[in-house]
Amino acid sequence: MTIRIGELARRTECPIETIRYYETEGLLPPPQRSGSNYRLYDQGHVERLHFVRHCRSLDMTLAEVRTLLGYRDTPAQDCSEVNALLDKHLHQVEVRVKALLQLKRHLIALREKCSGSRAVEACGILQGLSDPCHSVPADSASTVVVGA
């Protein structure tokens, strides 16, 4: 079975641009080319792209996906490193969840500063946003963006 990039995109629900990007990043092996220079993919590409997409849906970085693909390509290897990678990723998720909960508390506190219709100059939210004492600490703000 060989398919063109459009069919691969349809089967995996992955944009063509993303498929090309994953190829340049080495996450997908280079496809064969037809006489007309069309990319030709096989079932292995479909399965590998599904794997990559699943990893990315779990917010794994390209480096993490690349590492997991390396382990996947050597199936007789011990999986303790895979466990360690997932444990590290899980810890990063927990850190981000904590930062997001802190952000939520900050937004709730801001929202409570204004409870109705009034002139903008008297808006407690805008006043709260202008108060540097109520800023989210820099390390929390940057933690929220990790993996974006």
Furnish the topology, listing elements before pairings.
Elements: H1 5-12, H2 16-24, E1 32-33, E2 39-40, H3 43-57, H4 62-72, H5 80-111, H6 124-130, H7 138-145
Antiparallel strand pairs: 1-2
Helix pairs in contact: 5-7
Category from helices, strands and their pairing? mainly alpha
Described by strand count, sense and barrel closure, the largest sheet is: 2 strands, antiparallel
Share in helix: 55-70%
Mean pLDDT: 89
Number of strands: 2
Which radius of gyration do the C-alpha atoms yield?
23 Å
Q: What is the number of helices?
A: 7
Distance between the termini: 36 Å
Pattern of helices and strands: HHEEHHHHH
Shape assignment: elongated
Note poorly predicted spans: 141-148
Question: β content, as a range?
Answer: under 5%
What order do the strands of the largest sheet run in, or round the barrel if closed?
1-2
